[in-house]
Specification:
Blueprint: E1 2-7, H1 11-24, E2 28-34, H2 37-46, E3 51-55, H3 63-68, E4 76-81, H4 87-92, E5 97-100, H5 105-138, H6 140-143, E6 145-150, E7 153-158, E8 162-168, E9 171-176, E10 181-184, H7 188-194, E11 200-204, E12 207-210, E13 214-218, E14 223-226, E15 231-233, H8 239-245
Parallel strand pairs: 1-2, 1-3, 3-4, 4-5
Antiparallel strand pairs: 6-7, 8-9, 8-12, 9-10, 11-12, 13-14, 14-15
């Protein structure tokens, strides 16, 4: 059973979409429909869903701004709009599908089949990811490797290969010794929880560093220089803890 919510500032569009889904698709429960995206955000704080049908142009906030407010996007997103100029941006937001209004019934059925497949795949990947993360943690004393989820796969990294991590809003970048940069759809706090090793320290709101990669510390200017010559600021309220750790 798919649990779905519908978000559109036009009540007629909501009514039409609900009718289409209810009459042409099985094993689907519409657990909420909202003309106000702020109310939908409140709903999502205490309710889990498998898919959101989301209008793009809305007065309070557009669909992309709506998604920016959500940290963990463990659901499929289907954009619904009367305009086709948002297609590329929707792809960048990793939307599962993009439906133009008025929504064609056959297109809707195809989309919902994709949502069902997404749910199966997501549940399988989540179970596998949790199992591999447990294995990674149980062996951390021996291998000091960490499993990082990226684009539906797990990348296993040695802790000594990670120099630092930098926040990018709701996302994060990991910088490696080989000069490679990994992009994660996770906040820095979530990455900090993954890198729960003694060698990592949150030196600044925007930076998590590998203490073993600190080459120099400039007390007057308040920054460190890492082995790749990157200068990282040290927050005043984290300075004492940093000095204790190094």
């Amino acid at each position: 059973m798919l649990k779905i919510i519908l978000i559109d500032d036009e009540s007629k569009s909501l009514t039409s979409l609900k009718w289409e889904i209810t009459n042409f698709c099985n094993d689907i429960e519409i657990i909420g429909k909202f003309t106000n995206p702020i109310e939908a955000l409140t709903f999502l704080k205490t309710n889990s869903v498998d898919c959101i049908f989301l209008d793009i142009e809305m007065p309070q906030m557009d669909g992309f701004q709506f998604l920016d407010q959500i940290n963990e996007k463990d659901f499929a997103v289907v954009f619904t709009t009367a305009y086709d100029q948002y297609a590329i941006k929707a792809i960048k937001e990793r939307a599962l599908d993009y439906l133009l209004k008025p929504i064609d019934s056959d297109d809707l059925k195809i989309t919902l089949d994709r949502v069902f497949e997404f749910k199966k795949s997501f549940q399988l990947n989540k179970t596998l990811e949790e199992s591999l993360l447990k294995i990674s943690k149980s062996n951390e004393g021996l291998s000091k490797k960490v499993a990082i989820p990226i684009d539906g796969k797990l990348v296993f990294l040695k802790t000594q290969d990670i120099i630092y991590c930098k926040s990018d809003g709701n996302y994060c970048n990991i910088f490696l010794e080989n000069k490679e940069k990994l992009f994660l759809t996770k906040k820095l706090k979530e990455v900090e929880d993954l890198l729960n090793f003694d060698c990592f320290f949150r030196i600044h709101n925007s930076y998590l560093i590998n203490l073993e990669k600190v080459k120099e510390y400039f007390k007057t200017d308040g920054y460190v220089v890492l082995t790749n010559n990157k200068k990282i600021p040290v927050s005043r309220n984290r300075k004492n803890n940093f000095l204790d750790r190094v």
